[in-house]
Amino acid sequence: MRKFTKEQKRQIATIAAKQDADIDLSEMPEVLDWSAAEIGRFYRPPKKPVTMRLDTDIVDWLKSYGRGYQTRVNRLLRHAMMSARKAPAKKQRSA
Questions:
Q1: What is the pLDDT of residue 72?
Q2: Is the dihedral angle over the CA atoms 26, 32, 35, 39 positive or is it negative?
Q3: Which residues of 46-56 are buried (b: 16+ CB within 10 A; e: fewer)?
Q4: Of the candidates 27, 25, 6, 23, which has an alpha carbon nearest to the alpha carbon of residue 15?
Q5: DSSP letter (8 states) at residue 28
Q6: What average pLDDT does the segment 53-81 reach?
Q7: Among 21, 22, 15, 23, which residue's Cα sits nearest to residue 7?
Q8: Where residue 95 falls among pLDDT bands split at 50, 70, 90?
Q9: 54 vs 69: CA distance, rounded Å
Q10: Closest Cα partner for 55 from 73, 32, 81?
Q11: What is the largest CA-CA distance in the chain?
Q12: What value does the mean pLDDT take over residues 6-11?
């Protein structure tokens, strides 16, 4: 992240010193209808590095779609997790 200029710092300080009641929101009307809002659009869960051993043909298949195969694995696993959560609870076998 780049550093702020002196002018930017001055502007930030000016805004921070204002009380909420002093801020003019006339050009930004309050949103009353949130029906079209996208839940989680800007949320990015934290990532954790892991080591997995996958069959070669699986990795080849994932890479055949181009760059980002690890992201693709994450999406496939997330889809499987969400599907499992929606399905009726089944007794899981112990590993």
A1: 95
A2: positive
A3: eeeeeeeeeee
A4: 23
A5: S
A6: 95
A7: 15
A8: low
A9: 12
A10: 73
A11: 63
A12: 95
Q: How far apart are CA 87 and CA 24, in angstroms?
A: 49
Token pair 């009307």 is at which residue? 29
Residues 6+ apart with CB under 8 A from 59: 69
Q: How many Å apart are CA 20 and CA 63, to the nearest integer? A: 51
What single-letter DSSP state applies at residue 87?
S
Tokens 């800007």: give the residue.
Answer: 42
> Please, is 62 exposed, middle or buried when counting C-beta atoms within 10 Å of its C-beta (0-12, 13-18, 19+)?
middle
User: What is the pTM (predicted TM-score) of this model?
Assistant: 0.50
CA–chain centroid gap for 46, Å, is: 9
Joined tokens for residue 28: 């930004």
Residue 38 in tokens: 């996208």
What does the pLDDT average to over 40-58? 91
| pLDDT above 90: residue 31 | no
Please name the amino acid found at residue 6: K
